[in-house]
């Protein structure tokens, strides 16, 4: 009887253990299935990104192309899992506001502003700060009142600064034109980012013993005449990252060529259009970095409040060799080795 009782006890224990094992197996299988389902959902998620561009000119257009590449590099591709809403304000502030509202209505999960006025329009229209905004080509995000600081933005905005090394560009111009005495500063009076750059460039010019002549314009209509005036007053002209002047660069280049006036802009595309040289940041790469940041935020991998503004550490020396030769500018062997030429 005792043996029968013992056998019965063992049998019960075996059944309990087997049942527990089956229960755990089923539970784990359920979790695995749940995880697989969750993973599948994440992989199949469709994203919506809205992009607002200030206007069309080569530099900003390259940034937009770069943004698409950056999004794709992070796995967000049009025609697959991304709807990209694009609006171009063509330099009209009222259009920027209307287009910002449309991008919000499109239920964009992340908004991208190409150039300071576009980013400010988006910020003004996201009333509750509940949609992330990524800055593309904003020279001074803090100065534009878009972030608390470049290191810790603090709310719904982060992105990429296109701050050029303006002091180095002035130094490059001084190196190429050692006999120069006066430098003209050509920029739009309406662009706060330009004023910020002009202040830094002017300080460096004065350090090098150059006299500074400021010539702000209120619109592209004043550009041709202003260049003609500068040609009589200065030895070369510096142009900051300025969308108004960039939009009129062909006019600048035509008038400068007539007057044999060297122009030193802050972006590669403007060198290609008729500037002598710059130390610049690739606009395409700037866009790629912007696109990557937008994708990471859309996927929940980054928080704009704690993601520092990205600033490129070093620019590249870019020279229009043919124009330099036409103007009689001598290029040293050292500069020739380190520079990239547009021709």
UniProtKB/TrEMBL annotation:
Pfam families: ABC_sub_bind. It comes from the Bacteria. InterPro entries: ABC_SBP_TrpX-like, ABC_transpt-TYRBP-like, Peripla_BP_I. NCBIfam families: ABC_SBP_TrpX (NF041285). This is ABC transporter substrate-binding protein. SUPFAM superfamilies: Periplasmic binding protein-like I. PANTHER family: ABC TRANSPORTER, SUBSTRATE-BINDING LIPOPROTEIN (PTHR35271:SF1), ABC TRANSPORTER, SUBSTRATE-BINDING LIPOPROTEIN-RELATED (PTHR35271). It comes from Enterococcus diestrammenae.
């Amino acid at each position: 009887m005792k043996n029968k009782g013992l056998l019965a006890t063992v049998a019960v224990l075996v059944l309990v253990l087997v049942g527990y094992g089956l229960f755990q197996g089923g539970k784990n299988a359920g979790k695995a299935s749940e995880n697989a389902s969750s993973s599948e959902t994440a992989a199949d998620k469709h994203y919506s990104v809205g992009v607002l561009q200030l206007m069309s000119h080569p530099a900003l257009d390259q940034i937009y192309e770069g943004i698409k590449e950056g999004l794709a590099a992070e796995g967000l591709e049009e025609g697959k899992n991304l709807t990209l809403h694009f609006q171009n304000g063509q330099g009209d502030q009222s259009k920027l506001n209307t287009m910002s509202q449309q991008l919000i209505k499109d239920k964009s999960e992340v908004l991208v502003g190409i150039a300071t006025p576009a980013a400010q329009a988006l910020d003004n229209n996201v009333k509750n700060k509940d949609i992330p905004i990524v800055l593309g080509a904003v020279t001074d995000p803090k100065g534009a009142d878009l972030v608390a600081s470049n290191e810790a933005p603090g709310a719904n905005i982060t992105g990429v600064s296109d701050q050029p090394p303006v002091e180095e560009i002035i130094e490059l111009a001084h190196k190429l034109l050692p006999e120069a005495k006066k430098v003209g500063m050509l920029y739009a009076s309406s662009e706060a980012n330009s004023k910020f750059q002009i202040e830094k460039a002017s300080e460096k010019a004065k350090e090098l013993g150059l006299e500074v002549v400021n010539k702000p314009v209120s619109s592209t209509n004043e550009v041709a005449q202003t260049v003609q005036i500068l040609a009589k007053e200065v030895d070369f002209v510096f142009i900051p990252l300025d969308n108004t002047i960039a939009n009129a660069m062909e006019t600048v280049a035509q008038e400068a060529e007539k007057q044999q006036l060297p122009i030193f802009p802050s972006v590669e595309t403007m060198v290609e259009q008729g500037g002598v040289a710059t130390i610049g940041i690739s606009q395409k790469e700037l866009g790629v970095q912007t696109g990557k940041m937008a994708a990471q935020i859309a996927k929940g991998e980054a928080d704009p409040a704690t993601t520092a503004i990205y600033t490129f550490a070093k620019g590249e020396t870019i020279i229009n060799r043919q124009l330099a030769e036409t103007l009689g500018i001598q290029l040293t062997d050292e500069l020739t080795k380190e520079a990239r030429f547009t021709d």
